[in-house]
Amino acid sequence: MMKWIPVVLALCLAACSSEGKKTYYQLPVISSSQPSLSVSAPRAPVAATPRLWISQVTVADFLGSAGLVYQTNDVQYVMAANNLWASPLDQQLRQSLQSYLGSRLPGWVVSEQQGPDANQQQLTVNVTGFHGRYDGRAVVSGTWTLSQNGQLHQHSFNIELKQDQDGYDALVRTLAKGWEQEASSIAAEIR
User: Three-state SS for 97?
Assistant: First the structure.
């Protein structure tokens, strides 16, 4: 009987040390309800085309890890070890925001790079919440600042959406819906 104890201990240690399968997530770009329209027309002068520069999208430190974040109670957060963002979250948020705003601001040039026009509008976003929560809700929160004609407009947002299903796939889709909802609010303010 004693000779089996080392074998059992070795098997237990091997099982504990093995890594689970890693799954990587990318935010889906939710299809816009507005159809994309391409029209061949004489080009307007660059100065006449309204421009928006998304200068920065930052995330809170706890969201900057590779793992998706889940809030387990009112004060505890867990960073997933095997359910990871395929690329940095701040990068995904910035790219999807550019896509959303580009579709909601027809006739605008929405860019992640500063253009030559000193009068272009500038948008900065600080995301303080982008995670799942113990009550089945997805949280998207933070602030954004729009610099427009020498004036600053700052807005806070806190969106909580109920997940339709359990699991990380549903969480990522619900977070994307919340992010799209906030992009629509930003576009409405810019217009």
Answer: helix
